[in-house]
Amino acid sequence: MKLRLSCLYTLTKEVSEKLVYPILKDASEVLERGAPPGEGAKIVGKSLSKDKLTVVIESGTYVRPHDAAFRLKNFLSQKLGKEHHVGVKEIVGKLYEIIFDVPATPSEEVKLPYAKSISFKGKTCTLILEDVSEEFLQKNTVDRMISLIKEKVEFQQYGTREEHHKIIYEGSTKPMHFTEDPSQELINRKWVKRTPHRNQFIFGPQITELAEAVKRAYVDVIYKPLGFVEMMFPKIVDWSIWKKSGHARALYHGGFNPYLFITPKTADPKAWEEVCDKIKITGEIPSEDIMDLLEPPRGGLAFAQCPPFWTYLEGETVASESLPIKVFDWSGPTYRYESGGAHGFERVDELHRIETLWVGSPDQVQEINLELREKFRVLMEEVLELNIRQALVTPWFMEQKGVLDESVEGGAGTVDYEAILPYNGSWLEVQNCSNNGDSYPKAFNAKAQKGELASGCAGGSFERYLSAFLAQKGFDPENWPKKFRKYITVIPEDVKFL
Amino acid sequence: MKLRLSCLYTLTKEVSEKLVYPILKDASEVLERGAPPGEGAKIVGKSLSKDKLTVVIESGTYVRPHDAAFRLKNFLSQKLGKEHHVGVKEIVGKLYEIIFDVPATPSEEVKLPYAKSISFKGKTCTLILEDVSEEFLQKNTVDRMISLIKEKVEFQQYGTREEHHKIIYEGSTKPMHFTEDPSQELINRKWVKRTPHRNQFIFGPQITELAEAVKRAYVDVIYKPLGFVEMMFPKIVDWSIWKKSGHARALYHGGFNPYLFITPKTADPKAWEEVCDKIKITGEIPSEDIMDLLEPPRGGLAFAQCPPFWTYLEGETVASESLPIKVFDWSGPTYRYESGGAHGFERVDELHRIETLWVGSPDQVQEINLELREKFRVLMEEVLELNIRQALVTPWFMEQKGVLDESVEGGAGTVDYEAILPYNGSWLEVQNCSNNGDSYPKAFNAKAQKGELASGCAGGSFERYLSAFLAQKGFDPENWPKKFRKYITVIPEDVKFL
Predict the structure, then answer these.
(1) Is pLDDT of B70 > 70?
(2) CA angle B458, B461, B467 (to 5 degrees)
(3) Which of B309, B455, B266 lies closest to B368 in space, CA to CA?
(4) Cα B37 to Cα B31: distance, rounded to the nearest angstrom
(5) Has B355 been annotated as catalytic?
(6) Which of A229-243, B145-159, B328-342 has the highest mean pLDDT?
(7) CB B207 within 8 A of CB B461
(8) Cβ contact A272–B278 (<8 Å)
(9) Residues of chain B neighbouring A290 (CB-CB closer than 8 A)
């Protein structure tokens, strides 16, 4: 790696070469501090015009020129300030040339915001930045740009990694009583009805009672025996949370397709009078006018449920006696902007998820993980009597970090529970269960009184459980397993429409 | 009322005055049809230049000139088409002058989109439109503009009507055990915690158990005895629903301050690559860039719960045997962009509402309304032992329609249930119960097999019930009424933070 920064210092007064050049010479010790002998940053060029001092700094792996530029600023301020009452007003990185190796020869152009140019000779990349601000230099932005170029070159080489998916369990065969698409039958019976919005349904009383029965089974089979208690997690999520959880950096990438929420610049009726007048006169929403009256989005609708939970523990140190924390949430729907993949009731934009979340020492977390994995199997195979399989997959956050760990028994990893849909022969993911290691506690600065803090989470949805159940068992309650029927109070009579 | 429209007809070919003027003369019968003799629309001027025919049409209350313009178009097409193969290509309202009386002399300027000018002489308004399109003329937009001007003048006169609020019931005195602000105590105990988003809380296990106890009490006291069953209503709402319910026309007016949702123009990762790169490099969300990649909002987050229910019955005719329909929904939070009024846990942007909704004949609806009103009283006074009062108020949709009806017993109207907050002496609205008459079935084209269809709805929230309860009874379960305590399983132990 070779870095070369041409840095312009604007001083508070005009100075002479005679005054300032010797100071630059004396600065060499400061610029090399912390690096092996001879490998620190070096001044390789300089020029002065009135109050404008240009210094060219070079370095390799040790002491980045942008760090060196600030060391030099302090040194200059110190030397010029006391005796000569001259300060440094501003630094601008006029030209920053960064040469480094990438993992492969790129197969196509690499683009990056803030870069003047990015070019390659074989596996050697030259990144040029121009006129970068003091703040930009200070925030170590350059290192993040280098990482991102390497990431992009690697992505060109390997593309999106195939999701790691290994079958680790095949359930025993259970009776199946239906061969049709359950979504169609749900719609025919008016147990659900499509709304004017894409991939959204309203749940009639009959399907709602079945969802409630799934809740009762969940509590009875999983939550009560394992000591999980209910919480209500927020369902709109401030950007700051997705920044910490890592979701923000994958906005509309790799499956993170959220709905965003948006609020007015002002709710003063006067500001909205013209829009309302137009609606009153035409009966239509003047979309373009509305956009001008809205703030940029402040965040999104809950996508997965667990990131907004972490507000609860953020910045806290949890007493040992309160660990492990075992909670669940089903207090509201989550949203995914589904593209081609949306289908019927089993893949919707408005999804009613069931979140199971636990926090404790790494050992506690893994123990609960294994207990839950068995309980989910019991719920699916013994209560709902579903034909299922389990697969080991790479959790999303690990994909993002480039980690791939097959040894779920020993640490982080995700197990998916899939049920077969007889009507089309495909497997539907109904539930997952993940040990997330220390990623969330680290991201949200949550600590244990003693030792490490880790967490796990598991997600299911009423739509998926019921789609799988009805696809395999059909709509005749006589064909439903007794162990599940006991959780159903009474299925309300169908509302009759003419 | 006096209306005068100068209308430009563009014909498909040049014609002569000799051909077209006699046809205009013959049209007089068509233009007067349906009006008392002499009071229909009249042609008071005409001119022709090649293929451009200008006709000036005047009328009073009967046969609006914009209707007359289309009658004339048809007449012209008929007379010119057959014999001369000339058609009418386009109509433009070049100048439309509308003179009408308003309820009062306006005290300030009245503005309206699409109006060239609006002027007054005393109580007489002259509205001028210029260059209005065929579509604009056809949609009866002019009548909606006249109504809106009258409404605005009336508003100048009377301002926002004071909410009609009449105490109709004062409950008996119940013991109170607390004088502090319960929100503060909830935060101190970490039963709730503020999130990074405005007026939003995460519910810890303890407050969630209390919310669940309120649910159990609701089911036991109200829903089970009265035969209400659960549904799951959508929680994002397409504009088309708010257009029908009438909410859209009051966007950010009169308390309708919704959150809107917004989705990307495309979820193609390529389109979002630059935004993601910026987030990865700077760690910040580039708000302005994001706005360019988003569609205008397609609707909002649920505000009240009941409008999106109506998808279920929209366009349907409900069989007599299925009436009345009695349902409830607590499947997710609703959102209000609260301004100055937001305070602690009792007034939040993310609110967990409880919606009770019933549909039937007007008699069924009113009978259920009265039953519910008594049950809500029992829940509040006998189970939660709250100090309450009831007030008769004007429901929102009636305010919009300008209706004010004191005789709730006989028809539409709303009763509010308010509980006193000892810490500041104010009354908090905890629950309401409304007979909404036929407004929703009409708006959503829902019909009964026989007779009229009407509906009612009632809203409460866990936040409000619990704020009132904790404000009056405090946090020592010993002071909580036995009839409520039986619905609490176990309050989970406080999580201990260091």
Answers:
(1) yes
(2) 135
(3) B455
(4) 11
(5) yes
(6) A229-243
(7) no
(8) no
(9) 260, 296-297
Instruction: Say what the pLDDT of residue A82 is.
Output: 83
* Residues sharing a CB contact under 8 Å with residue B219, sequence separation 6 or more, in sequence order: none
The answer to whether the CB atoms of B196 and A322 lie below 8 A apart is: no
Q: Is A355 noted as a catalytic residue in this protein? A: yes
Residue type, B427: W
Is B208 within 8 Å of A232 when comparing Cβ atoms?
A: yes
Query: Residue B410 has what pLDDT?
Result: 47
How many angstroms separate the most distant Cα atoms in chain A?
98
CA distance B258 to chain A (A): 8
**Chosen from A160, A206, A252 to mutate, greatest number of chain B CBs within 10 A:** A252
- Band (pLDDT 50/70/90 cuts) for residue B160 is low
Structure token digits, residue B189: 């105990």
State the smallest CA–CA distance between residue B81 and chain A in angstroms: 32
Q: Which of A36-50, A418-432, A465-479, B195-209 has the lowest mean pLDDT?
A: A36-50
Please, what is the Cα angle at B249 between B245 and B255, to 5 degrees? 90
Task: Answer whether B397's CB lies under 8 Å from B455's CB.
Answer: no
Are A331 and B312 an interchain contact pair (Cβ–Cβ within 8 Å)?
no
Distance CA A44, CA A18 (A): 18
Stretch among A31-40, A334-343, B448-457 having the lowest mean pLDDT: A334-343
Question: For A247-273, how does the pLDDT look when each residue is reduced to its tens digit (9 = 90+)?
Answer: 999 999 878 999 999 999 999 999 999
Beta strands in B60-87 (DSSP E): none
pLDDT above 60 (res B100): yes
Annotated active-site residue A464? The verdict is yes
At residue A167, the 3 state secondary structure works out as strand
Give the 3-state secondary structure of residue B319. Answer: coil
Please say if the pLDDT value at position A397 is more than 70: no
CB atoms within 10 A of CB A215: 16
Asked if A308 and B202 count as a contact pair (C-beta separation under 8 A), the reply is yes
B193 Cβ neighbours under 8 A, 6+ residues apart? A311, A312, B187, B201, B202, B204
State which amino acid sits at residue B270. K
When pLDDT is averaged across residues B1-17 and rounded to a whole number, the result is 94
Q: What is the pTM of this model?
A: 0.91
Q: Tell me what pLDDT residue B395 has.
A: 52
Cis preceding-peptide flag for B324 (omega within 30 of 0): yes
Q: Which residue of A has its CA nearest to B196?
A: A238
Task: Indicate the pLDDT class of residue B467, thresholds 50, 70 and 90.
Answer: very high
- CA B422, B423, B427, B432 torsion-angle sign: negative
The CA distance from B258 to A127, in Å, is: 46
Q: What is the model's pLDDT at position A306?
A: 94
Contact list, A229 vs chain B (CB under 8 Å): 205, 208-209, 492
pLDDT > 70: percent of chain A: 95
Pairing relationship of beta strands B317-318 and B447-448 according to DSSP bridges? parallel
Q: What is the value of ipTM here, to two decimals?
A: 0.90
Distance CA A388, CA A373 (A): 13
CB pairs under 8 A between A and B: 313
Contact (CB<8Å) B236/A257: no
Q: Please compute Rg for chain A using Cα positions.
A: 30
Tell me if B7 sits within 8 A of B57, measured CB to CB.
yes
Give, in degrees to the nearest 5, the angle at Cα A353 between A349 and A358: 140
- Distances A23 to A39, A49, A81 between C-alpha atoms, Å: 21, 16, 12
For the question of residue B338 being annotated catalytic, the response is yes
The shortest CB-CB distance from A205 to any of B229, B274, B350 is to: B229
Residues on chain A touching B350 (C-beta within 8 angstroms)? 234-236
In the annotation, is B433 catalytic? no
Is B287 within 8 Å of A297 when comparing Cβ atoms?
yes
Phi and psi, residue B94, nearest 5°:
-70, -45
Taken in order B358, B362, B366, B371, is the CA torsion positive or negative? negative
